[in-house]
Amino acid sequence: MILDNRLFFSATQRNKGCIGDVLSRIIKKNRSILEIGSGSGEHGVFFQKRFPEIIWQTTDPDLLHRKSITSWIEYEKLNKIMPQPLELDVENTPWKIPLKLTSSIQGIVSINMIHVAKWNCTISLFKGAGELLKKGQFLIIYGPFKIGNKHISQSNYLFDNALKIQNDCWGIRNIEEVSNEAKKAGFSQEDIIRMPANNFSIIYRKVVF
């Protein structure tokens, strides 16, 4: 008997479809995607089902999250095609990634992570991605961002304040500062896509080896 350790994050149900639409523009068949900070695993199983021709590799440093991911894989009957989650702390670079994944990876996705983590996690995300990805491969970040150090909505302003009350290292990041870290790690900003609920998908491309 498989224990049901599934977690349910409401934001996932609201945004998985539109994030999938962004992914559909750029992913290639028969290649792998590495997700950093997979949380409950709801995104991972949804994308694995939507894009059965790829391999979606989840990761998370939190054991409860990894148990949830495993339960979601079991629940959706994806055991034969979707690998188990990897224990990965974004700050521990270089990341310990299986050779099979390293050789088949086409890109990295991180959803709703950098605003609920300290700033060094953003720096490490680009550093780790820069070490792993080859020229032309992508990194996609999804979440709320400030532009010109200003919030784009009142709801984002209130959300940012609520985050900082929980942890003063958290908060909605300034998109220019994020992209500056991307540049340092060898990425260029390819596209910024406005998403529902005052979020953005930002696509970066590795431009140096």
Automatic annotation (TrEMBL):
InterPro entries: DUF938, SAM-dependent_MTases_sf
Matches recorded under Pfam families: DUF938
Gene3D superfamilies, sorted: Vaccinia Virus protein VP39
Highest taxon of the lineage: Bacteria
Coiled-coil zones: none
Name this polypeptide is given: SAM-dependent methyltransferase
Organism, scientific name: Prochlorococcus marinus str. MIT 9201
